Amino acid sequence: MAFFARNGGATTVPRTVTVNSVTVFHIIETNVGNAYNATTGLFTAPLGGVYVFHLHYGTDRDTDTELAIQANGRTVCDGNAQKDFAQGVCSAIVRLTSGDVVTVRAIKRARVMAGFRCGFSGFLLPQ
User: Fold this and answer.
1) Under 8 Å CB-to-CB from 97, ≥6 apart: which residues?
2) What does the pLDDT average to over 85-96?
3) Which domain holds residue 44?
4) What's the CA gap between 106 and 100, in Å, rounded?
């Protein structure tokens, strides 16, 4: 099980993400096991085990951006990118059971860049 999804659109056009909303990465590059839903932005664990998640994103010229990875509504990591096209990153290793849900949420109003500058990925560690 592994996935990588990113933002679509021109890399120079930022997308506004509202506070506490799920950040959806619409373009799926890899989705082995089909656990990431590019319509809802939800990753649903198909199997119990230990997973690794990684988030990277760029912000625009004028907006500080803070995004978090959450497992079942609980923040497992967050990243902060200051304005002026800074990069934010966040990684977590999380034990999940089958059916648990992982999302990316905006902690405060955010503007994230498109293309490969913003992506969300995860995979199941082998037992």
Assistant:
1) 45, 48
2) 84
3) 2-124
4) 20
3 state SS of 126: coil
CB atoms within 10 A of CB 109: 14
pTM score of the predicted model = 0.86
H/E segment holding residue 94? strand 87-96
Number of domains, the chain: 1
CATH number, residue 20: 2.60.120.40
Residue 36 to residue 27: CA distance in whole angstroms: 11
Task: Find out whether 115 and 53 touch, Cβ atoms under 8 Å.
Answer: no
Query: In this structure, what are the phi and psi dihedrals at residue 34, rounded to the nearest 5 degrees?
Result: 55, 40
Tokens of 122: 């995860």
Per-residue pLDDT reduced to its tens digit, 2-39: 999 988 765 545 566 677 788 888 889 999 999 999 99
Q: CA 36 to CA 51: how far, in whole Å?
A: 13
Handedness of CA 77, 15, 110, 60 (dihedral sign): positive
